[in-house]
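DM from R.C. (forwarded with permission)

"hey, sorry to bug you on a friday — could you get me a structure for this? deadline for the figure draft is monday and I only need the backbone to look sensible"
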Amino acid sequence: MNETIDDLTVQEEENGQVFVKEIDKVILSRGAWTTILFRYQLYRPETDDFGPDKYVIQRYKKTGGSYRRQSKFNISSPEQARKIADALNGWLGAE
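My reply, with the result:
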């Protein structure tokens, strides 16, 4: 079970084969409601390697002593990731 924030991951494997490889994560908020930005790659069996980096923001709620995912937002491309970063930098740069 995911009892701590550090236990939360997007990595998935079956019989020792990793299908979703977590590259990195940034914890955006902690507490009963936790938000994490993950960087990951998907395994491509046709080439026997991992594809390009992907990104997802996931929100978790702690209930009954463990964290359960409540929602997620997949960032669909590097271009979309840059647009999100640029918008946030623009808004926060004005402060």
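R.C.: lifesaver. The longest helix spans residues 78-93.
me: no worries. The chain has one domain: 5-93.
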